[in-house]
């Protein structure tokens, strides 16, 4: 969930140092020199993050896979310059060399964002553009309010739309899908 505070917009550009200088407990993302503050996630948001993360982690464990799942808060630096700092709701990273004590250096293989009312423009537009150009293989936008899951498979240049009644196949795996009808958020 991202909101730009009006009193903060007077500064032309921000850096990763500004992110690191935030007070404890305050979270924000940095995109193109602008800080986007993040609101506290809702109960439904957190349940979706937990349920989806669990299913992915369970699959990787059963297959003895090399990928790791990181729910937010987890830092993702999309480029070496550290001018894009994000905290995706769920990051799946298969290249262990990208994982450091600071977070992920480079693009995760798969990112899932759970939409909140304040994050809708960020998730559907700004982050979509950044993820598609940074080398993310797959990006899911899970929008509970709109009963929609958008699956962007950047490797195949495809977009699929699903509902919370559907089974959604992960493009980075041959035999994994999430049955959203089994996910209870209430």
TrEMBL record:
Residues 18-164 form the Putative restriction endonuclease domain. Gene3D superfamilies: tt1808, chain A (3.90.1570.10). Keywords: Endonuclease, Hydrolase, Nuclease. One of its GO terms (molecular function) is endonuclease activity. It comes from the Bacteria. This is Uma2 family endonuclease. It comes from Sporofaciens musculi.
């Amino acid at each position: 969930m991202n909101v730009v505070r009006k009193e903060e917009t007077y500064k032309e550009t921000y850096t990763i140092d500004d992110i690191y200088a935030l007070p404890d407990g305050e979270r924000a993302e940095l995109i193109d020199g602008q800080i986007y503050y993040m609101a506290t996630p809702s109960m439904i948001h957190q349940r979706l993050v937990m349920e989806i993360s669990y299913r992915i982690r369970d699959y990787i464990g059963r297959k003895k896979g090399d990928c790791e799942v990181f729910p937010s808060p987890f830092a993702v630096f999309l480029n070496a310059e550290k001018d894009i700092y994000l905290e995706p709701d769920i990051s799946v990273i298969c290249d262990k060399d990208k994982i450091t004590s600071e977070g992920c250096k480079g693009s995760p293989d798969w990112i899932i964002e759970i939409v909140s009312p304040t994050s809708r423009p960020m998730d559907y537009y700004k982050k979509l553009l950044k993820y598609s150009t940074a080398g993310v293989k797959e990006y899911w936008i899970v929008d509970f309010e709109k009963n929609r899951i958008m699956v962007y498979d950047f490797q195949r240049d495809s977009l699929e739309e699903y509902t919370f009644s559907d089974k959604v196949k992960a493009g980075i795996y041959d035999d994994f899908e999430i049955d959203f009808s089994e996910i209870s958020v209430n």
